[in-house]
Design brief:
The chain is α+β, with helices and mostly antiparallel strands. It contains 7 helices and 15 strands. Strands 4, 5, 6, 7, 8, 9, 10, 11, 14 and 15 form a 10-stranded mixed β-sheet that branches. A 3-stranded antiparallel β-sheet has the order 1-3-2. The longest helix is centred in the C-terminal third of the chain and has 13 residues. The chain is globular. The chain starts with 9 loop residues before the first strand and ends with a helix.
């Protein structure tokens, strides 16, 4: 990317939805193809002016604040198309709904440049929105790499904005299925905490006290079925923080099985359920990734305004694990 700044500054007026956002957060939404570090540097260097004055990246915005910004030429992060299989649950002229497999990363990142959902979308569809940047074509929301399930993809920018607004206003209903360790006591409850990046393990999140970079996170859960040493639960996140469900269940004392980042172990084997159990082959592994699946997604269709719902059936590894636990670990 060239270091030469644009001659004419771009001008923006802060809209109501961004009231209270950090300046660097807001800029990262406006310029998704630029890194957060580059945007923060632009603010610190005085290439960004807020109401005609320099400001800190952490400055909280107010409605009708005016931003002037000069940046280098926009980088080209276009994702190369790859002929990868997609499980398409629904497609129309405005959007696509896919059932993401558990081994697929949503978009390219550090150390993962190929085999992504973004590359598969570029191959299978002629037009996709670019609101989230060239390296996230059509992608409105995300799932962790090893979480399977429903994702909605926008075919144009107007659809993308309308869907994003629903996510931001929390009118989208998301239901997940998970298998956790231990017997969850309450039939249903709210988990309400603050979360932030773990300072000792930057790839993990943690529950924390209010303040600083902490962000509120809220999840409602219902017990689906109890077993001896395990519980199947339904999860309804009301916020969309990174690793939220995984962190919340660990905080509850019931980490998701095979979630190696959050004390769930790296896999669950048939022999873990019963020493006498035998497998058909030498490998008795039931599941080797976090047993978390985005099961249902409901929202207003951005073109027809109808309430729609899409369901991704349980993948084989989670269904197989549930069947084995039900057979070998019934609640006594």
């Amino acid at each position: 990317m060239s270091d030469e700044l644009s001659t004419e500054p771009a001008l923006h007026t802060v809209e109501a939805r961004a009231h209270g956002w950090r300046l660097d957060h807001y800029l990262s939404r406006l310029y998704p193809n630029y890194s957060r570090v580059l945007l923060q540097r632009a603010v610190s260097d005085g290439s960004v002016l807020l109401n005609g004055l320099t400001a800190k990246p952490s400055r909280r915005l107010r409605v009708n604040d005016r931003i002037s910004i000069r940046l280098p030429e926009e980088p080209d992060y276009t994702v190369a198309p790859e002929d990868l299989p997609l499980d398409i649950l629904h497609e129309d002229e405005w959007l696509v709904v896919v059932n993401k497999s558990a081994d697929m990363i949503v978009h390219p990142g550090r150390g993962n440049t190929t085999g992504t959902l973004a590359a598969a979308l570029q191959f299978h569809f002629d037009t996709l929105s670019d609101v989230a940047g060239q390296h996230r074509p059509g992608i409105v929301h995300r799932l962790d790499r090893h979480t399977s399930g429903v994702l909605v993809i926008a075919k144009d920018n107007q659809v993308h904005h309308r869907l994003s607004k629903q996510f931001e206003e929390r009118t989208v209903t998301k239901q997940y299925r998970a298998i956790v360790r231990g017997v969850v006591e309450r039939d249903s409850d709210w988990i309400e905490t603050y979360v932030r990046v773990n300072p000792h393990h930057r790839e993990k999140m943690m529950v924390c006290e209010e303040g600083g970079n902490a962000r509120p996170a809220t999840t409602f859960y219902e017990v689906d079925q109890r077993f001896d040493g395990f519980t199947s639960v339904k999860l309804f996140p009301k916020t969309g923080r990174t690793h939220q469900l995984r962190v919340h269940l660990t905080h509850l004392g019931h980490p998701i099985i095979a979630d190696r980042h959050y004390n769930g172990g790296d896999r669950l084997r048939l022999s873990d359920l019963s020493p006498e159990a035998t497998a058909d082959d030498e490998d008795d592994t039931l599941i080797a990734r976090q047993a978390l699946h985005a099961h249902r997604l409901s929202f207003k269709h951005p073109a027809t305004n109808e309430q729609v719902e899409y369901v991704a059936p349980l993948p084989d590894d989670i269904a197989r694990t549930l069947a084995a636990i039900e057979r070998l670990r019934p609640l006594k």
